[in-house]
Amino acid sequence: MKFLLTTTAALLASASIGAACEVTLRSSDTHPDGYPTVEGVKAMAEEVRERTEGRVCIEVFPSAQLGEERDTIEQTQFGVIDMVRASFGTFNDIVPVTQTFSLPYLFRDVDHMHAVMDGPIGEEIGAAFEERDLVVLAYYDGGARSFYNSQRPINSIEDLQGMKIRVIQNDVFVDMMTALGATATPMPYGEVYSAIQTGVIDGAENNYPSYDSSGHAEVARYFTLDEHLMVPELVAMSKTSWDRLSPEDQEVLREAARNSSTTQRQLWADAEAESRSRVEAAGAEIVEGIDKQPFIDAMAPVYEKYATSAESQDLVERIRATE
């Protein structure tokens, strides 16, 4: 079992390690050591240290050592923490434009999401973060959520009719399930296994690694790769900390961050492939290559309800038009 430092001990360790560096930047992540996002920032740190000949160091604190996502985002805004890795979903109340990225079936596939985030739209989103004292350095891959259940393969929207599907307590998710003809059943994640096993619900939705690590594949063997939700992750830096760096070091940090996104995305793809291999070996049936268009068409009332402003509607159109 890995020993987790307390916040105080972690900060003391950072001070000790950073003694040889002219600038030491502390970066927070709630995921455990070894997780793709953590390793992505570590790759960034390694490149920055090498290219600045040890002048600029990034110390990565995984496992919520510096606090949970919401808390560390606020600390990063105020410059108490220098950098944070977090999901777009956590920024919804801080940077409103991120709410659009919680809409179902917004992206056609993972490559489409990467093309959007690495292009002009990603730059535009970054500008919105700067208004909240945050500098976006990189967009990471948080995976795609898909449906799985204990009853039957979901090959079409008709196969979802009447199913009871566990979702997180979120109005968008509840309305998505209603639009698909299923019954949304919000419940704590820890209760899902037994709820499927006892027939309280028919299934749930998540990504491959979660489907695997939770053991849900044991009780819900039908996994349909519909990828209804892809919420980007990002690495953001405190504007206060950013402004302390020289233009040259800022450029090094930006380039290292962009390179780290390639590393992180590959690590995530590897994790998904490993999880898929394990669940298939255990008897899970993977349904892929479905026609997503009927699912997308069914989302019209969801988009009418949540993409209400002209700005959000325009953003949705531009995202869908991105090649």
Automatic annotation (TrEMBL):
GO biological process terms on file: transmembrane transport
GO molecular function: carbohydrate binding
Record carries keyword Transmembrane helix: no
GO cellular component annotations of the record: outer membrane-bounded periplasmic space
PROSITE patterns, alphabetized: PROKAR_LIPOPROTEIN
Highest taxon of source: Bacteria
Assigned keywords, A-Z: Periplasm, Signal
Protein name: TRAP transporter substrate-binding protein
